[in-house]
Design brief:
Subcellular location: Secreted; Bacterial flagellum
Largest sheet: 5 strands, antiparallel
Strand content: 15-25%
Pfam family, one: FliD_N
Radius of gyration: 45 Å
Number of domains: 3
Structural class: alpha+beta
Oligomer: single chain
InterPro entries: FliD (IPR040026), FliD_C (IPR010809), FliD_N (IPR003481)
Strand order of the largest sheet: 1-15-3-11-12
Number of strands: 19
Subunit structure: Homopentamer.
Protein name: Flagellar hook-associated protein 2
């Protein structure tokens, strides 16, 4: 319980201010503890940032260290109307492609125009769809009108395999019906139930298969405009603008730009982590202060380990494939040198990067993982250790709160006792003075 102080009632002293000055002196050890907590929290924040970047670097390096990351191929085409897709099972290859025909739907355009409400199915409300699979289908139109016919052909429940469209003309609507699938086998006929022609008969545009000529007497056909597995792992697609006579050279080759971009990303991630370490350990000559991590030998060791990954340890370097250190202590990546080296010896370059040969990416992964592992990482354990230290310091600060409160109470009690004693003495002095003043005076 707090004790009230009697500030200078008898002595005239500002005891409250005196007590505050005493308390500031008494609180100096606690203030030093609080400053240490602030300093340690700053260190923990820096370490946590480094740990996050090291974990991200681990992930990047792990992906690039996998041999599978270096087997990817990409397909390119010299004609935008002829596309190519290469899967992981493809092999490097080159094909010259000439489009002989594109896949089209089977289409009927009926000659006679009619109103939507006109009955067009003859004596019956049914029509016969003689489909490409050789099984005639009877379709009930409901009322036999043009609109009823269109609705029945398009009804998913009827599973007609065709779609009907009404095209406006000066004398009404003309009916167009086409197969939902492409290919030569998509043909069909549409007649009244008794076999007679509908709407004056139809002009036919036959469905066709897509066909390409690969040269040397080799052709390929497809009922769609996609040639799936044209060669193992490779699909070729004719887009909507493709026409007979289009030619293209299609290539399946190693995806050097993608690999180069991944390598650059890895080098950038290493440099980013190194830059943060430099920032945290640097000395500012202007302010004459050091970074929060200036005294952390573990962080400095991590920097050196990261930069050392560029050296395989056998007396060689990675300079011939575009990776080396500069005079500022950072890694540099020459994309052109890397591409040239990879084109010349893809297996050799990948072996010097991947885990199979303890390559560069694998060395980076080992260093970054040793720092950021969530259980045993050097940065992780450093963070946990400092957080434990902060917790102990905070306990000491809390204990000082209790100690200082007791000291304040003691000082207040002492000053209150002083004021009380002085007040009593002043009261006695006044009484004695009054007694003396009341005594009779005697003259000689």
């Amino acid at each position: 319980m707090a004790t009230s102080s009697i500030s200078g009632l008898a002595s005239g002293l500002d005891s409250a201010s005196i007590i505050e000055q005493f308390m500031k002196l008494e609180a100096l050890p606690q203030t030093q503890l609080k400053n240490r907590i602030t300093s340690q929290q700053s260190v923990v924040t820096k370490l946590q940032s480094l740990n996050s970047k090291a974990a991200l670097l681990t992930t990047k390096a792990e992906e690039l260290a996998k041999p599978a990351a270096w087997t990817g191929l990409t397909g390119t085409s010299s004609n935008e109307n002829i596309g190519i897709t290469a899967s992981s099972t493809a092999s490097a290859m080159s094909l010259d492609v000439t489009v002989t025909s594109v896949a089209r739907t089977h289409q009927l355009g009926f000659a006679t125009a009619a109103a939507k409400t006109d009955v067009v199915t003859g004596a019956s409300t049914q029509v016969t769809l003689d489909r490409f699979d050789g099984s005639p289908l009877t379709v009930e139109t409901g009322d036999g009108t043009l609109q009823g016919l269109v609705d029945a052909l398009n009804d998913p429940a009827n599973a007609t395999g065709v779609r009907a469209t009404l095209v406006s003309s000066s004398s009404g609507y003309r009916l167009m019906v086409e197969s939902t699938e492409t290919g030569a086998q998509s043909d069909f006929a549409l007649t009244a139930a008794d076999g007679s022609a509908l709407l004056g008969g139809a002009v036919v545009r036959a469905g066709t298969d897509a066909e390409i000529d690969l040269g040397a007497g080799i052709t390929a056909t497809s009922t769609t405009n996609t040639f799936t597995e044209l060669v193992p792992g490779v699909d070729l697609t004719l887009n909507a603008a493709a026409r007979a006579g289009d030619v293209a050279t299609v290539l399946v080759q190693r995806d050097v730009p993608a690999l180069s971009e991944q390598m650059k990303g890895l080098v950038d991630a290493v440099n980013s982590l190194v830059s943060d370490i430099d920032s945290g350990t640097a000395y500012n000559a202007t302010t004459k202060t050091s970074g929060a991590l200036a005294g952390d030998a573990g962080v400095r060791a991590l920097r050196q380990q990261l930069l050392s990954t560029v050296f395989p340890g056998d007396g060689t370097s990675l300079a011939d494939m575009g990776i080396q250190t500069d005079r500022y202590g950072k890694l540099v990546f020459d994309e052109e040198a890397f591409a040239a080296a990879y084109e010349a010896d893809p297996e050799g370059v990948s072996a010097r990067i991947t885990s199979g040969g303890n390559g560069f990416a694998e060395r980076v992964r080992v260093v970054a993982d040793a720092a950021s592992d969530k259980y045993t990482g050097s940065l992780t354990t450093a963070i946990e250790s400092r957080q434990s230290g902060i917790s102990r310091l905070q306990d000491d600060v809390d204990n000082w709160d209790t100690r200082l409160e007791l000291r304040r109470t003691t000082l207040q009690n002492q000053f209150n006792a002083l004021e009380t004693a002085l007040a009593q003495m002043q009261s006695q002095s006044s009484w004695l003075s009054s007694q003396l003043a009341s005594l009779p005076s005697y003259s000689a």
